[in-house]
User: Fold 1-acyl-sn-glycerol-3-phosphate acyltransferase from Symbiodinium microadriaticum.
Amino acid sequence: MTWLLSKDILIVIDVIDSPETPPTCVLTMGARAVLTLLLGACVCFASRSRTEAAHAFALPTDRKLRRPPPVALVARTATAGPGAELKQFVRPKQRLPGHSVLAFFRAIGLMWTMLCLSAWVVPAISAGLPVVKRKDPVARKYVDRVICAWSQMTTWPFFSVKVKGRENLLPKDQAVVYVSNHQSFMDILSCYHLSRSFKWVSKASILKIPVVGWAMKRTRTITLEREDRRSQMATFRQCVSTLQEGASIFIFPEGTRSPDGALLEFKKGPVSMAKRAKVPIVPVTILGTGRLMPSKKEFFLYHNRAGVQVIVHPAVSAEEVQETPDKEVLLNLRNTIESALPLELQKGTVASCGPQVLQGQAAMDGPEGGLFTVECKRSIDADRYFYNLPCNGSYSISGLALVPPLPWQTRSGIPGEYKLDTEEDETEEPEFVPLPPPPKGRTQRQSVSAEAFGEWNQRVIFEPAVYPKTPDQTQELVEVTAQSFLFTSLEEKDLRVVIAAMKGPLILESGHRIIQEGDTGDHLYVVTDGSMDCVKVIDGVEMVVKTCVKGDLFGELALLYNCPRAASVQCREPAVLWELDRATFNNIVMEGVQRKRNQCLSVLSSVPLFSSITRGELENIIDALKMERRPRGDVIISQGEVGDHFYIVYEGQVMASKITEESPEPVMMIHEAGDYFGELALILEEPRAATVVASSDPEVCLLSMDRATFKRITGEHSALHGFLESNVDRYA
Assistant:
């Protein structure tokens, strides 16, 4: 249905009637269409801009409008050799969700709720106002608690707020400077869920907002005129005085709201006032408020199913603030807050030959047919790598990094495509923002990289090379690879493909150097005879740090992390090696590992034992599990023996039997996929309570965990340990 209200206004509403659509559904959609038309017409005649009114009440029929893609930050450099810094990045115009009737009325409802609740807030605060003017600390805290309760009651009907890291909050009576990212007016209401008393540092114009401005005046909010230098100095002195009196300060060091959620440049004021008052600083990250009420859309409150998260990071002590230069403290605070933001909003650096870098995705603009490598670094947490991405002159690419999953993977753990769209609005120039230099120091390797495939890097059918081998050589390689963590998760057919693709044998003489430290690596090597020395330059002297013997492999780090060779490798005595190329490693080994990992994640997610464990913690547990295959009839554990392992049934069935003094006949129990056993001996430090035998034909697949790992994981997760203890009587 289409109505033309004027030459500038065209409202189109689609009502689909199909044999599968119930009549009531059609009537409902029709009623909504008529209601929307009436509301749009009313606003059109009352608005100064009819076009804006029509847009405000148009029903978006495009799925992309209802679920916009994440904001893309494209980093640009003129030349980008290895280790090049990103001097500046361009921020395309943010694609926010369109205006909607529901969002408008949600915002009105929020304001109305706040106004109604003020019916008891105003008398409650006014009653203590004379005392507050005398700066009585008890009265100040009383007023702050009233405002805190008011804010929490206002937000409760509209969105949820979860606070993570409460253990990092300092005592309530200690003066603290809280610093946080800022992306929405909802940040203020969300921060009151910290249940702490603090004073805001805000622009003076916010005090003009009805009710909210009145409440902020009563809490002695410190105001600031951004363009007035004298006002800035007066505000600074007032903040220091407030901190010295024992009250806390909450400030947004960016100075304004971020239009897309990415951090802007931090001002040094919070660090200076904390150093002057000799108080600690607590960094806070706020997630989700930008989706609720984006910048420049203050009259629309959108629905955010994930709610709002307020993450409290460990505090920077007053001593550390005093001893560390201001710039370094400010950079550490920014990196800490940024570490909790989505990956696409974090800064990056060029690893090699990359003309552009985009927070974990590559925005390509170079000669067609070229290859480049992209490294996305975060100062806190793991590195993310993308490499061998084809340059075809496009600004769109789909990418994937493995372990841990990236934000655009589906909830089931199956990797999904993230399409980057950097199309800019023709009427608005992109905003250039200087990027701070990347932090120094290396981070611990925690991630594993893989080839990125997508719209502009289409997957092709991979046909690995096949090098002939004798049966003895094949069997020898099977035994060697079975001992390596890289190949333990592979299916037998995939392992056979990998072994067939190993080139060799390479026969080396003593002293031959096959890997040079710092070089780019494209192969890993398996030692089947002899020995190899790993040599590293330490203080200008080459030293042997490890010796690889038969059954070892080396060179895998360059393939796992796409990094230069960490050490040189040379032949200690005549040796025989087999080499595996990067293409086979990426297409067979890494995909097999990820496929098996996703399967394990799917199985463990359905186990009641892990119901209280988050996805990230569950992935760490998967890293600690080993896969075992037992043929039918094999005894896995025996009653009465000392237990050293905990088992989870991955595929197949096992039969548990127990003989007691009361009953000479064994008591039988069947464990299927998702069940677990063997925990009793590890919890109670007692012998095995039952015998468990593999009963599936031809074999059963188990996930096992040794005693030390079991103790560590259950100790870290009290809920997991409590669940196990509550089920100790399963074998009784």
Notes: Confidence is low (pLDDT under 50) at residues 1-26, 43-96, 348-459. The CA atoms of residues 605 and 615 lie 8 Å apart. The domain at 101-107+159-340 is CATH 3.40.1130.10 (Glycerol-3-phosphate (1)-acyltransferase). The first helix runs from residue 23 to 46.
